[in-house]
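dude i think i finally got it to work??
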Amino acid sequence: MNKRLSVFLLCLTMLSCVFNLSVRAERLKDIAFVEGVRENQLVGFGLVVGLNGTGDKGNATLQGIANMLSRMGLRVNPKDIKAKNVAAVMVTATLPPFPKPGLKIDAIVSAIGDAKNLQGGTLLLTPLKGPDGKVYAVAQGPVSIGGFQAGGGGTGVQKNHPTVGRVPEGVIIEREVFFDINHMKEIKLILKTPDFTVATNTMRAINTTLRGKYARTEDPSTVILNVPEAYNGRVVELMRFIENIDVRTDTPARVVINERTGTVVIGNNVKISPVAIAHGGLTIEITTTYGVSQPEAFSGGQTVIVPQTEVSAKEQKAHLIQVSGTTLGEVVRALNSMGVTPRDLIAILQALKASGALKAELEIL
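look at this
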């Protein structure tokens, strides 16, 4: 009896493992975010100083230097300034949700003039403004470009992009973006990828966890959560509790193609109906050679260059191959059996979509 019970429990364990492998689940915090809890973009105009002769040569930078010196109490004519060691830059930063004064974040510095290199430069104090025109942070510090540029005499070497750099923790937040989440009565959860199935699964997972009908779906991208009375004034604790809920996710059948790089990405739910494919590559080669036509002595003619062009075309033999698949593994094996290049595979997938055999959305980048 004990032996039969052990075998029964072992079978249940194996079935449970198979079921868990077939169901994909992700944490709620990874597939959705709270409406209003978002990042904000900041931008400002600044000057990078201390460059080794690789700065701007334009008049706009000279005027910026003059304005900066004017704010410091020095009046200088822009025409009298030599700015080879200074570069005008745009400074950008991303303000995180719930920013607090004194918090430090990184800044991106990008040259807007004809500066050659920002290596070794230092960004001067730059106010960073939001879309509303208010200053939310200030940036200052040494610029790190993570590379270099050197050369001379017509030769040179360059690593990474020397006109764009980063100021690590060079931005200090000065203004707080107020958002009172603790006293909200209703929370809108926005799915990062709208989907009817995922929205419904999210609603059911929340209601099951909270043991009540607190969540409802508004559309494929929005799940509205009514804050339970037990969590009034404690929404942060509620979010900490529900953001770790596992939600069953689903992805649409989609094939993504990047023709510029020859990249093909096939989703898990892609299927191909039985179809026969014959694909042959056509190669056309055009070769041009230059010959010299030289006249005979004392004929009065001129020596000219005569181009000679040869055109050849080669077409590979193609055989009909049956292709079908109901799972990702079968689709991959069927397409690999044709032994085609990524460029040919892109053409085949487009033809499969046109014939109706490809049961997936075809997205071309």
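The first strand starts at residue 25 and ends at 27.
im so relieved honestly
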